[in-house]
Amino acid sequence: MPRYYEFDVSLHEIQPRVWRRLLIRTTATFAQLHKAIQDSFGWQECHLWEFRLPTFQGRPIAGLPGGAEYDRPTPDARQVKLNSYFTGKRVVEWCEYEYDFGDDWTHDVKLIAVRSDKASFKRRLLDGDRAAPPEDCGGTTGYERMVHFVETGEDIYEEDPDELAIWLDGWRPDGVDLAKAKADFDR
Known about the structure:
Helix content: 10-25%
CATH architecture: Roll
Number of helices: 4
Shape: globular
CATH superfamily: MM3350-like
Oligomer: single chain
CATH topology: Structural Genomics Hypothetical 15.5 Kd Protein In mrcA-pckA Intergenic Region, Chain A
């Protein structure tokens, strides 16, 4: 019977919490987990990314090959298996996933459980809440600006509201269509 890691993935510093719960095979790589996070949050894979130990200036676990952002070697995420880091035996197992080193979207990736399932699949989206911030919106402060604009119609930077509305293209912070996201994700 196939075994799966159940992960809770949530963005740092945003309230209400933006999060996803997903299953992925225990034999998957960190590159496959990266792709699952990208797809579940609706990110577009436009930026550098890395998985790190959850410590101050955490050591990289896996990332893009040759993409050492901080003059330190980063293991190739296509070669590093999830089960080399996650065991399912410790009380708490988690790491950080950073996407877009400019906007600094840091995610907590917490192992909730290791599950077996009679069904065979590569990954499955279980749950989640709130839409991910739009790409290139400017990090947490930019996200707060977008939320304020959507709620009030006013831009705190006093830029053209019509242009901002066009750029947001209907984005809403509470606008996650979980049924559609699950169907797209599970394909």
